[in-house]
Amino acid sequence: MSESAKPHHPNPQGKGEKSHGGDFSYVGIDAILEQMRRKAMKKGFELNLMVVGQSGLGKSTLMNTLFKSKVSRNKSVQSNTEERIPKTIEIKSISHDIEEKGVRMKLTVIDTPGFGDQINNENCWQPIMKFINDQYEAYLQEEININRKKRIPDSRVHCCIYFIPPTGHCLRPLDVEFMRRLSKVVNIVPVIAKADTLTLEERDSFKQTIREELRANGIDVYPQKEFDEDAEDRMINDKIR
């Protein structure tokens, strides 16, 4: 049979045809997670931690232990000079690039030396509150710019670790006032400093007292109830709580 005499079967709907080696029914949604993962790994992550508490509660030690590296501020090693106690709160930031199993993270530790060290600590949280709000404002200004940067530097405080002195009795008025005000603008994680100075019974009793005082003063600490989006999230958050 000649070529011109071959029978022709039209296929107007394109049934059974392939497009670039794939079926028309395949969209590729299953590749989104891998694309997002690759993009996130390429950019890396940013984590800005603020540590707040009186001097001598072990803030630097905890930060260095958490990340298995010297990520907190370096103190003077000269023994003949006493470390100067700031008259006002001095907010200091130090950044590190940390990599673990191919995951890169820019960690910024924001220290607040001078908090709670004075005889009169009235309104000593105001510089910290101003600093946190200023970072939100700077990020917002970058977002609303017409010619905004491809990647906006994120200096917002993602988490505030608040160190509670291990009195074993109750929260101080300073602790309550700080967390009551700051919990509205930042995620607060309260930590009992130097908890090994308490017996297990004292520690458990102190933790229960802190929970009751937080509840009585309407203070929400991380993770807040609004983070319980489903049953799985609630189960994880309850373990943290």
Automatic annotation (TrEMBL):
Residues 1-22 are annotated as: Disordered. It comes from the Eukaryota. CDD domains: CDC_Septin. PROSITE patterns: G_SEPTIN. The keyword Zinc does not apply. Signal peptide: none annotated. Pfam families: Septin. Residues 43-241 form the Septin-type G domain. Keywords: GTP-binding, Nucleotide-binding. The keyword Iron-sulfur does not apply. This is Septin-9. It comes from Xenoophorus captivus. The gene is SEPTIN9_2.
